Amino acid sequence: MSSLVTIRNLDKSYQRGPEQVHVLNGLNLDIPKGDFVALMGPSGSGKTTLLNLIGGLDTPSSGEIEIEGERIDRMSGAQLAAWRSHHVGFVFQFYNLMPMLTAQKNVELPLLLTNLSAAQRKRNAEIALQLVGLAERGSHRPNELSGGQQQRVAIARAIVSDPTFLICDEPTGDLDRHSAEEILNLLQMLNRDHGKTIIMVTHDPKAAEYATHTIHLDKGELVDAPALAH
Questions:
Q1: How far is it, in rounded angstroms, from Cα 184 to Cα 191?
Q2: How far is CA 123 from the centre of its chain?
Q3: Could you say which of 23, 68, 132, 179 has the lowest number of CB atoms within 10 Å?
């Protein structure tokens, strides 16, 4: 299986006053295309930082990040923004939906950056909502939907542009167990049946069981990830 994400000697540090805080230390990692990876570790271990670097939301202090042969660590801010819009679907813990827009209009948002017609944007949003089981809820606003349904809308928005991979940061962290299981089953289906590569940060061992691999981070270094670490 070909590698989607290739990371070599990745370092990330921040300046906090006079102190330099090291978050990631010399990370080496390969994530195969079509994989569903759970990224786990204690608070402050560097999980979200690594996720943001892979998703092009942040840049490394040093090291290489290659996605499908493209060195995103060399890209400018404008290049990264364009790359993200074509390649990455984001799913966050708190949905990040626009409260004044319907579910369908929320799903259409990423398509406003494309050359698609209004009719085609509407059609693509309908298809994405159908895929996440919300075909009948397109006209509802977020406050008319349950937390689980709002997260389904967020997932539909993430996949509507047919991105190369999905980045999920604690996608079930704000949900009850039943809703969380529905979301995890949905992510598993997108991975298994539609070939979507998924990289998910979670603190929940039960959520990690839905993934095909689990990567453990501690103090910015990989722990016990022999199948993926190098």
A1: 11
A2: 24
A3: 68
What is the per-residue pLDDT across 3-40, written as a single tens digit (0 to 9) for each? Answer: 899 999 999 998 888 888 888 988 999 999 999 999 99
Each residue's pLDDT tens digit, 202-223: 989 999 999 999 999 988 888 8
Q: Are 40 and 217 in contact, with CB atoms under 8 Å apart?
A: yes
- The domains located in the chain, with CATH, are 3-98+147-223 (3.40.50.300)
In the sheet with 165-169, reading across from the earlier edge strand, the strands are 88-91, 165-169, 197-201, 36-40, 213-218, 221-223
Q: Name residue 217's beta-bridge partners.
A: 222
- The answer to whether 117 and 145 are in contact (CB under 8 A) is no
- CA-to-CA dists, residue 160 to 24, 100, 121, 157, 222, angstroms: 32, 20, 9, 5, 32
Backbone phi and psi for residue 210, each to the nearest 5 degrees, phi listed first? -80, -15
Q: Is 209 exposed, middle or buried (0-12, 13-18, 19+ CB in 10 A)?
A: exposed
Q: Are 182 and 5 in contact (CB under 8 A)?
A: no
Separation between Cα atoms, residue 112 and residue 43, nearest integer Å = 36
Whether residue 91 contacts residue 166, with contact meaning beta carbons closer than 8 Å, is answered with: yes
Are 215 and 54 spatial neighbours (Cβ–Cβ below 8 Å)? Answer: no
- 3-state helix, strand and coil shares in percent for the chain, rounded to the nearest 5: 40, 30, 35
The whole-number pLDDT of residue 1 equals: 61
Among 78, 40, 46, 41, CA closest to 63:
46
> At residue 204, what are phi and psi to the nearest 5 degrees?
-100, 110
